[in-house]
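Hello forum,

I keep getting stuck at the same step: I have a sequence, I want structure tokens, and every attempt I make locally crashes halfway through. Rather than fight my setup again tonight, could one of you with a working pipeline run this one for me? It's a single chain of 212 residues.
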Amino acid sequence: MIKVVLADDHPLFREGIKNILHEFGKAIEVIGEAANVNELLAQLAQKQPDIVLTDLNMPGRNGLEGLKELKLLYPEIPVLVLSMYPEDRFSLRVMKVGAYGYLNKGVAPDELIKAVEQIALRRRKYITPEVAELMADNLGRDQDKMPHETLSDREEEIMIKIARGDKISDIANELFLSVHTVHTYRYRILKKLGVKSNVGIGHYAIEHELIE
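Reply #2:
Ran it on my machine without issues. Output:
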């Protein structure tokens, strides 16, 4: 029996994934659920799953930061990321952090089952053709990065929130940071993107399809 802990902030999506795992999987059981990173870590402190299925975009802590902490605390538990974002946004980052696979939420049920079984039973990373192509294209390209590709995970998270029009005080509260710290991140973002204002950050994000 493959034991799964599932993390996503949308209850209906979690229910859908559970139904898929039950209907298409031969021996897969969801033994725990979480709606954010803190709940996920609390679940793992009590349970021992064979695999974690988690979204990146959940309330509170950044998903990439949460993934780093998870791998630090529980390096033996493989993680499969299920995200609404296309592979070119985050797949390489999560793989570098230590995830065993990255799937878009639009994936077919049989591929999800295949990924879960390969990761949980064989302890092998699941690489889709799309991710494999990105890995190949990324080889030797560090010198040719776009400005936003030089942002840290936290900087990118704050950049997206600023681009969407969130207030600095609201960002600070949501991420449990001081207003001063968020202003510091904002300054770094402005310098790296080569823009001069929040409006410039917004225009950059829209132009490069970083926000909808």
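The longest helix spans residues 179-193. If your local run keeps crashing, start a new thread with the error log.
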